């Protein structure tokens, strides 16, 4: 069962950010230009989680500013959103050397920062971009090809796993689908969830139990 979010009121996000910006908890501190904390709006209803900063992000201090970020912005635009309506963060906040995969101990060292960002935001929708973010949020070893196309529940948030934009830029097919087509479908699902009335204004639904079962695939 994914961690229950703690109360947003208990999170001093500015203090957590300040701690992150001077973090030396793992080996990545030695090679970074700067810590890459977040882009967009940490008060929004929508949170995107990527993997790790790359070359451009490390230089500029902002997630998804390279080619993958441009694709993300384009897909956001197609559902009439932009970075003012979403926050964009990564599982780890420092660039791994040569853009290698994040290691388990690096993910664990960085965990409190991402957990604090999620708890502070209490987003309605979390979009996990690729394997690392999906596994972090679902607390499962599931791969993105199998996870995408389903919605999951994490506390009050609906989780929509999708491909990492870098995979879409590489092209090819995964599990018989093109990642860019799959991402477009998944972004439409995000739009649909955001367009639903917030839970507190919704009338009680008789088959709520069935609905939540469908979301709770793990
Ligand atoms: N890829 C990521 O996962 N995050 C970034 O910030 C940029 C590229």
Describe this structure in words.
- With 218 residues, the protein is an alpha/beta fold.
- The protein has one domain (8-197, 205-215): Uracil-DNA glycosylase-like domain (Uracil-DNA Glycosylase, subunit E, 3-Layer(aba) Sandwich), CATH 3.40.470.
- It is 42% helix and 11% strand.
- It has helices spanning 13-21, 28-31, 55-60, 67-78, 104-121, 131-138, 144-147, 165-170, 179-195, 208-215, and strands at 39-40, 46-50, 87-90, 125-129, 152-154, 157-162.
- The chain has a 6-stranded mixed beta sheet, sandwiched between helices.
- Strand 5 and strand 6 form a beta hairpin.
- The longest helix is centred in the middle third of the chain and has 18 residues, at 104-121.
- It is globular and about 50 Å long.
- The N and C termini lie close together (8 Å).
- The model is unreliable at 205-218 (pLDDT under 50).
- Bound molecules: uracil.
- Residues 50-54, 57, 63-64, 68, 90, 166 line the site of uracil.
């Amino acid at each position: 069962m994914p961690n229950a979010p703690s109360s947003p009121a208990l999170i001093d996000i500015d203090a957590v950010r300040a701690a992150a910006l001077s973090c030396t908890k793992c080996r990545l501190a030695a090679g970074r230009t700067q810590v890459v904390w977040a882009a967009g709006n940490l008060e929004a209803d929508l949170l995107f989680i990527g993997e790790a900063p790359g070359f451009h992000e490390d230089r500029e201090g902002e997630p998804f500013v390279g080619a993958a970020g441009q694709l993300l912005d384009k897909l956001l635009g197609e559902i009439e959103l932009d970075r003012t309506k979403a926050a964009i963060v990564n599982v780890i906040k420092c660039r791994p050397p040569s853009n290698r995969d994040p290691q388990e101990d690096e993910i664990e060292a960085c965990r409190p920062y991402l957990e604090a960002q999620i708890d502070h935001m209490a987003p309605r929708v979390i979009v996990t971009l690729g394997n690392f973010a999906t596994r972090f949020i679902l607390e499962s070893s599931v791969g993105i090809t199998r996870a995408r196309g389903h919605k999951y529940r994490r506390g009050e948030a609906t989780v929509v796993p999708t491909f990492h934009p870098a995979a879409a830029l590489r092209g090819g097919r995964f599990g018989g689908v093109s990642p860019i087509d799959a991402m477009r479908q998944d972004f439409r699902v995000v739009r649909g969830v955001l367009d639903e009335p917030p839970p507190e204004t919704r009338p009680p639904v008789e088959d709520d139990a069935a609905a939540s079962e469908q979301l709770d695939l793990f």
